[in-house]
Specification:
The protein has five helices and three strands; from the N terminus they run H-H-H-E-E-E-H-H. By secondary structure, the chain is of the alpha+beta class. The chain has a three-stranded antiparallel β-sheet with strand order 1-2-3. The longest helix is centred in the last third of the chain and has 20 residues. It is elongated.
Length: about 130
């Protein structure tokens, strides 16, 4: 799978967040662009996005350079992980994960292991409580 640099990921996040007027979105865009005058003078621009969506108060997503990019809070990320897990027909199928950054892939696997352990414990005294991140 392709590993993406922090700068590429930052660029994609900035492109998605450039579609939003939330103060944190503006901050993420500004952190990528830096000094606006220097950014404009460099001739660089953010990549085009398509399919922009706001997911309630939890996050936003869009397609950037052929990749679906989502940015949001913990609830948004957990929903995305659940959706990804539901799409997996086989627990050993890592095709969708092969293009994830290694740290994200490891976090996804840890989360799945925690969910399996919680399901196995099922009736323990902490049943129904959220899992630790």
């Amino acid at each position: 799978g392709a590993a993406h640099t922090r700068q590429v990921l930052h660029r994609w996040v900035a492109a998605v967040e450039d579609q939003d007027n939330h103060p944190l979105a503006r901050s993420l865009v500004a952190s990528y662009k830096g000094c606006v005058a220097d950014f404009v003078a460099s001739g660089e621009s953010l990549p085009a996005t398509s399919g922009y969506q706001r997911h309630g108060r939890d996050g936003v997503s869009a397609t950037v350079e052929g990749r679906r990019v989502g940015v949001g809070n913990l609830a948004f990320l957990e929903a995305a992980l659940r959706s990804s897990q539901a799409d997996d027909d086989d627990d050993d199928d890592d095709d969708d994960e092969s293009e994830m950054p290694p740290r994200l892939r490891a976090a996804l696997r840890r989360r799945r292991e925690q969910e399996k352990a919680a399901a196995a414990a099922g009736k323990g005294e902490h049943a129904g409580e959220p899992l630790p991140a």
